[in-house]
Amino acid sequence: QVQVVQSGAEVKKPGASVKVSCKTSGYTFTTYGVSWVRQAPGQGLEWMGWISTHTGKTKYAEKLQGRVTLTTDTATSTGYMELRSLRSDDTAMYYCAREAGWYNDYWGQGTLVTVSS
Amino acid sequence: QSVLTQPPSVSGAPGQRVTISCTGSSSDIGAGNDVHWYQQVPGRAPKVLIYGNSNRPSGVPDRFSGSKSGTSASLAITGLQAEDEADYYCQSYDSSLSGSYVFGTGTKVTVL
Fold first, then answer.
1. For the segment B16-73, what is each residue's pLDDT rounded down to a tens digit?
2. Bridge partner residues of A3 (DSSP)
3. Which of A44, A67, A96, A113 could form a disulfide with A22 if both were Cys (CB 3.0 to 4.6 A apart)?
């Protein structure tokens, strides 16, 4: 069965970077893309970006351009999201999800990233 | 980057029918891009309810249905049940500039 498991919670200081992992199993990794979505406390869903696991092509949300990088490791079927120059308003639950043709069908459990001095 | 507009909240008694609207623009829904719907129970990851405007993944009850017309889409829940109390989000694709996915603002469904 398809499984998507994310790395654990992180606490970072303003200005630091964070890298969240998203390990998948139960399907051929390079057949589906990986999307990243975040949700600030009490707020709605915000799309962050998408990566093709087949070609490495990426798309990023305009507001995060230059601060976020999505990568994958096909050998371990794992996706990564790195966010740099962290600010307090980056405090959120970060989700990765399998992209099954324009929508997300399997989601990770979420990784809480807290940015605090 | 555009955003899709949803009502903040809708409510209904058990057994009733409720609908959630999702209003976009000519660059996203109106550009012919599909709309998808997600359900999120507090403290849990979102779960896909409807994909490709009106398709239900296996395991999703047929009480949930989706439709799309012009620059808008709707999610209907018939025979409302207590377990349907959750947040609901629509999603589409914005074809402007370099392209990006966009989510709706979210709707809280309360079962009275």
1. 999 999 999 999 999 999 999 999 999 999 999 999 999 999 999 999 999 999 999 9
2. A25
3. A96
Residue A4's beta-bridge partner residues?
A: A24
Q: Which residues from A are below 8 Å from B1, CB to CB?
A: 61-63
What SS3 class is residue A62? Answer: helix
Owner of token pair 């959120």: A92
Residue spans of chain A under pLDDT 50: none
- Distance to chain A for B29, nearest Cα, Å: 13
Band of residue B1 on the pLDDT scale cut at 50, 70, 90: low
- Tokens 């377990």 correspond to B83
> CB–CB of B45 and A45 under 8 A?
no
Q: What pLDDT score was predicted for residue B96?
A: 85
Q: How far apart are CA A37 and CA B54, in angstroms?
A: 23
Distance between CA atoms of B39 and A45, rounded to whole angstroms? 11
> Would you say B86 and B40 are in contact if contact means Cβ atoms under 8 Å apart?
yes
